Amino acid sequence: MATSAPLAHAASSDDPITLSASQLRTMRDDMQRFLLEYRFGMQEIETKIAILRDEFLLTHDYNPIEHVTSRLKSTDSLLDKVQRKGVEPDFASIRRHITDIAGVRLTCSFTTDVYRLFDLLTEQDDVRVLEVKDYIAEPKANGYKSLHAILEVPVFLSTGRIAVPVEVQFRTIAMDFWASLEHKIYYKFDTRVPPELLASLKDAADTAAELDERMLRLHRAIRGPAPRGNGRVVEL
Ligand code: 0O2
């Protein structure tokens, strides 16, 4: 695939253009191949998480992961973002500027597990951390909490090694519950959410954070200190 091949004019111009069936097929194939690389990157991260979960369960009789979901951005949503961010509509520019084409969301019971999993993944020597946004330490104004990381992993293709960025979101069950409801409300009101609902959502985020703290205290009372992935012992 030509890495700087333009994505026709779909994302940059409103001018009507005429494409032959074979040009359209080539564009579709290029896009599928481009997205496939991200699917492979996502699978690499999923495998790393599955290994950590299984090994943790076996070694420590404890599973720090509640559930894992993954998604590849749809072509429509990718092109929307390309346009919104003013990115040049060619594969090389998209690769450089859009880093959440592949996304993995990892939900844990406790905030301590969120950071433990973050450490265990980012300490692996084939993982490169491109960016970290800690919305748990510094929640967004609306109450959103999650730890975001863009992790670059190697993928080995028949043509050689490529590095693929994957956005990994780490959060607790309570944070996840809140975020999925907030997401639905945001879409239902087409981003114009009534102020009283926004206030109520913020209030719910505070309640969720309080629940996280209380559950963690209870968990610590039951289990006591727990081993960290690298053998160090941390207070849970
Ligand atoms: P989707 O469909 O979940 O992928 P970016 O636009 O990504 O370049 P941004 O917004 O600074 O830049 O990135 P950030 O802060 O890392 O957030 C990216 C993703 O985090 C979002 O992806 C959401 O999944 C989630 N997120 C961030 N803020 C909020 C929030 O206030 N509420 C909820 N519910 N989720 C949030 P997308 O692309 O919006 O959607």
Mean pLDDT: 89
Structural class: alpha+beta
- Helices and strands, in order, run as HEHHEHEEEHHEE
Gross morphology: flat
Question: What's the CATH first level of the domain at 5-13 and 20-173?
Answer: Alpha Beta
Poorly predicted regions are 231-236
| Strand order in space, largest sheet | 1-2-5-4-3
Describe the structure.
The chain is built from six helices and seven strands, in the order αβααβαβββααββ. The chain is an alpha+beta fold and 236 residues long. The protein has a domain of 163 residues: Beta Polymerase, domain 2. Strand 4 and strand 5 form a beta hairpin. Helix 5 runs antiparallel to helix 6. The C terminus is likely disordered. The structure holds ligand 0O2. Ligand 0O2 binds next to helix 5.
Features:
single chain, 236 residues, alpha+beta, Beta Polymerase, domain 2, five-stranded mixed sheet, two-stranded antiparallel ribbon, 6 helices, binds ligand 0O2
